[in-house]
Amino acid sequence: MSTSDVSDVIVVGAGIVGSAIARALAGTALSVTLLEARGDVGDGTSKANTALLHTGFDAKPGTLESTLVARGYDLLGAYAEQTGIPVERTGALLVAWTDEERDALPGLQDKALRNGYTECEIVDAAEVYRRVPDLGPGALAGLTVPGESLICTWTTNLALATDAVQRGARLLRNARVLHAEPADGHTTLRTTAGDVRGRWIVNAAGLGADALDAEFGHHRFTVTPRRGELLVFDKLTRPMVPLIVLAVPSSRGKGVLVSPTIYGNVMVGPTSENLTDRTATDTSEEGFDFLLSKGKVLMPKLFDEEVTASYAGLRAAIDSDDYLIDVDAAQRYVLVGGIRSTGLTSGMAIAEHVMGLLGGTDLDLEPRADLPDPPRMPNIGEVGVRPYEDAGRIAADPAYGRIVCFCERVTAGEIRDAFASTIPPADLDGLRRRTRVMNGRCQGFYCGAHTQALLEARGAEDADDVAAVR
Ligand SMILES: Cc1cc2nc3c(=O)[nH]c(=O)nc-3n(C[C@H](O)[C@H](O)[C@H](O)COP(=O)(O)OP(=O)(O)OC[C@H]3O[C@@H](n4cnc5c(N)ncnc54)[C@H](O)[C@@H]3O)c2cc1C
């Protein structure tokens, strides 16, 4: 990396938010660098969430978050169609289990209206059971939210980062910012990959945003890592959960949901636990027991089937209950903080908002006329046709007929393609996020060794293939 280069803008953090901002900035003539501490894009909070495309029906009306979630819903929905990010429009049903919760439904419907969402309807218990017959006994009523949808968070992050790079942004991975030294005309970021300079810095560092903010002399917020743990059930359970079953929110949060996943499983979660350790993405016995006790009430039959995986993500919670987005034109510094539990949905709208705020500065944000088309992402969701079931594709390229991961039906062709892509995976976990390999019920027991060999050969199955991908 040349240390003499000064980018017009450096975006710190290649999660969904930073990638969306880098993509938007790279749509202009500005030179853009996207810096990521980890070895891959999308390896922070953006990889471990409940992966719902939210309508924003339950956001706090009047907040920036409410506006940007609603806008992000439309922007990401349209972008998903352009790029092939898997989306499944299942809708959601919020279920009341107590008289108090039933009494709260009209207020929630009104809140949805105040957020500009008009589609919610209150339904009686018979309708609740008609829609979700396997729900546990005792449901009293429900509120429908037809627009809530499933989306692939992994592909979303990768598509945005790929688009940014294809538009000309420079991506630097394994580049953790340790210090920022603002000076005349530019800031020098001291990173684990050397010094990087930029005229403007955008802080989209998620759980690390407060530490980076302090480097610019601010002490305006503290990030509290709020852990959310989730259980994933075997694919056999998918027919039991035709849509997203939400809890009535309380002062303690949104509660535990039961939802299909975009990969054909069912999940229960998340928990909500404030921690101090910003790396604590391990799951816990307490979290498992809590989800078991809650989930067995929601859908006892589900718990007759196997839990095949569990995972946890950390929300970047801050003291305020709204996003904290601020432009400091004097320092040429942008803070994008507190993107706690809706950033997957709102990421593209946050980018649009940041571009709007930068409009009055010395940055020339005129869109470029020569933009490449957005990338077309491989489909790893269950909604569309996957390569293993596409006879024409297999006939044209037999690698799509060679299954590597039998649980998730991932083929050698998809693994090869991942390594040949604009942002190839750095490790097994990155390969899993791009293909679903090792993500099934055996968790890599059967395909782990083969996948590791493919990782070492960068997806190539034989010497000819090695030559082709290198
Ligand atoms: C349990 C859970 C469930 C959720 N469910 C949903 C949902 O259903 N729908 C929804 O819309 N949202 C959901 N969210 C929220 C959503 O996942 C987040 O808002 C979003 O992923 C935040 O993206 P980000 O880019 O801000 O953060 P991240 O993805 O964490 O990205 C920040 C990046 O910055 C990097 N970084 C940090 N410090 C530095 C540094 N010093 N130098 C360089 N890089 C650095 C990190 O490595 C990281 O990759 C959920 C979150 C959780 C935890």
Write a structural description.
This protein starts with 5 loop residues before the first strand and ends with a helix. Strands 1, 2, 9, 10, 11, 12, 19 and 20 form an eight-stranded mixed β-sheet that branches. α1 (16-25) packs parallel to α8. The protein has 13 helices and 22 strands. It has helices at 16-25, 64-83, 99-114, 125-131, 153-166, 209-215, 285-298, 343-358, 391-396, 412-419, 428-435, 448-456, 463-469, and strands at 6-12, 32-35, 52-53, 87-88, 92-96, 121-124, 141-145, 149-151, 170-172, 177-182, 187-191, 194-203, 224-233, 244-247, 257-260, 266-269, 273-274, 307-317, 324-328, 333-337, 403-405, 410-411. The protein is α+β, with helices and mostly antiparallel strands and 470 residues long. It has three domains: 1-86 and 150-221 and 318-373, FAD/NAD(P)-binding domain (3-Layer(bba) Sandwich); 91-145 and 223-314, D-Amino Acid Oxidase, Chain A, domain 2, CATH 3.30.9; 385-465, no CATH class. Bound molecules: flavin-adenine dinucleotide. Residues 12-18, 35-38, 43-46, 49-52, 54, 176-177, 204-208, 212, 228, 270, 313-315, 339-345 line the site of flavin-adenine dinucleotide. The site of flavin-adenine dinucleotide has 40 residues, from α1, β18 and α8.
